[in-house]
Amino acid sequence: MTDHGPGGATVFIGQKPTMTYVFQVVSQLNSGAGPVVVKARGNAIGKAVDVVEVVRRRFLEGEVSIGTIAIDTERLVNREGRDANVSSIAIPLSRIGPRAAGTAPPAPPSHP
Questions:
Q1: How far is Cα 75 from Cα 85, in angstroms, rounded to an integer?
Q2: Residue 64: alpha-carbon gap to chain centroid
Q3: Second CATH level (architecture) for the domain 2-95
């Protein structure tokens, strides 16, 4: 699932195959969205890390930077109705390499 927040997008990691999320992240980065935040909770945290690594090492090598990673613990009610602590992670990715199609070129340097 992708959520378009102000100035960027969020990809929530769930039960789908890893490559589904990789293509979502790459698509968002190529469309000029940024930063794209990969979010996951509980057992999906490992898959979120895998998604980020595949994006930056196989699809957009040298073109993506990882921002400040946020980790947290959320209190949720589990299926049995009891409170449970669930870990969460948010990994922001920004495009730093060759510009994505449809974006403006960088401004030329100014000389004093």
A1: 5
A2: 11
A3: 2-Layer Sandwich (3.30)
CA-CA distances (angstroms) from residue 93 to 74, 90, 98, 110?
23, 10, 15, 29
Q: Are 53 and 61 in contact (CB under 8 A)?
A: no
Kindly report whether the peptide bond that precedes residue 35 is cis, defined as omega within 30 degrees of 0. yes
Nearest one of 1, 37, 3, 42 to 21, comparing CA atoms: 1
Domain edges within the chain: 2-95
Higher pLDDT: 94 or 1? It is 94
Cα distances (Å, whole numbers) of residue 65 to 17, 28, 61, 91: 23, 14, 10, 10
Neighbours of 77 (CB within 10 A): 9
For residue 3, give the nearest of 30, 44, 36, 31 by alpha carbon: 36
Beta pairing partners, 12: 39
Rounded mean pLDDT of 43-57? 96
pLDDT(112) > 80: no
- Considering the entire predicted model, what is its pTM? 0.78
